[in-house]
Amino acid sequence: MATTVDCEVLVVGAGPVGLITTLLLAQEGISATLIEGLPDIDNSPRAMAYGAAAVLELERAGVAADARKVGMEPSDYDHRLRWITIDNKLISEFQPEDKLPGSKDPVICGQYTLARIIQDHLSRYPSAKTLFNHKCVDIEQDAESITAIVETPEGNKRIKAKYLVGSDGGRSAVRKILDLGYEGFTLPQWLVACNVRYPFREYGFARGQFIVHPDHFCMVGKIDPSGLYRVSYNEQEHLTKEEVLANVHNKFEAIFPGPKPLSKDAYQIEMISPYRLHQRSATSYRKGRALLAGDAAHACSPFGGMGLTGGICDAGGLADCLIGVLRKGGDDSLLDKYAEIRRKVYKEITDPVSYGNTCALRDSDPETAATSVEPFKTMNTSPAARREMMKRAYLVGHDFRQYWPTNVETGNKDEKHPAVATTAVIASANPEI
């Protein structure tokens, strides 16, 4: 007798990873319920730019165009990204002519705004529903189903599904309930993410740049057409959170271009969020009928845009594996493949690259970095070298549809899943992934 379930897939965590996973499932007619413990989508300043592999997933989910419409002005999509000294001397940069033929424009859009766009798309599918103020507090599972015990304002309730996805962030309740470890380390510095208004362009800054400096390494990037910028900088590890917040003006004084001393009236802070940086991965991304994605599965430094990029690639891959099992006749081993490959991608690409990006910003001599430090040394070699670096950005993604049963009609893969176009690049760069 078939097990009666409330939905086929229960997704825990309504950030972009959970939302994209649910949207891709709903587009295939799979009944999916998305729950979130908060009363609404979290609006704290986090990601604001997404790597090439994540852009492909946003494209096929149908949300990339809307994100570009609200995210930036057309002139900001110039494919220019700079690394500079604190006094705005160029160390290295990607230039417009480095764009790969046929590649998509980037998506530059605050994480909260992107989540709202995905939520709007998700609302169009009757097979999906989203429930806020629903906190997962326990999980039970057997051979045929998995049940979440959910805390709500009206009391606890049970939601039964065939599979459960934990996409509930770095402090994941799902990961903790499953008793999966979170191996790795925490970086000593604070990371302070600010949404701030300041005329950076008037003082020679570009749309996006990283500052290389041992004490003030940071990222400054425009995130919307109104001139709002994200400034993400490091702060000393021994400070309390209150001391970090009290020192914001002094950090801006050091980082911002323009007249000195910097007037507090020259800028407007709209949001600020100090948090710790982690390089961590769950010991497994699957336990029975439960799977992890995004920060629930792994965390990394945001410098270089590897964090949510990897999470969105998780979402696309996990959705494809669940579709393969629930709709395409694939067996349960597809989910093991997801867990193994996504963890391998994190360990071999996301973790070392994201940590290396942070070390390059923090530990380099800004005056000699252009000729002595990677990745700047390679970037300054030639346009061809920079294009090879851009190709490698696609390695964070993976097309799991290739593991569906061979008799399944997948349609025009190049249209439906643009990541297929990068298969040759992925295979040549790392045949084992």
TrEMBL record:
SUPFAM superfamilies from the UniProt entry: FAD/NAD(P)-binding domain
Gene Ontology molecular function: FAD binding; oxidoreductase activity
Keywords: FAD, Flavoprotein, Oxidoreductase
KW Secreted (keyword) present: no
Gene3D superfamilies, A to Z: 3.30.70.2450, FAD/NAD(P)-binding domain (3.50.50.60)
Pfam families for the chain: FAD_binding_3
Domain FAD-binding: 6-351
Alphabetical list of InterPro entries matching this protein: FAD-bd, FAD/NAD-bd_sf, PheA/TfdB_FAD_monoxygenase
Source domain of life: Eukaryota
Official protein name in the record: FAD-binding domain-containing protein
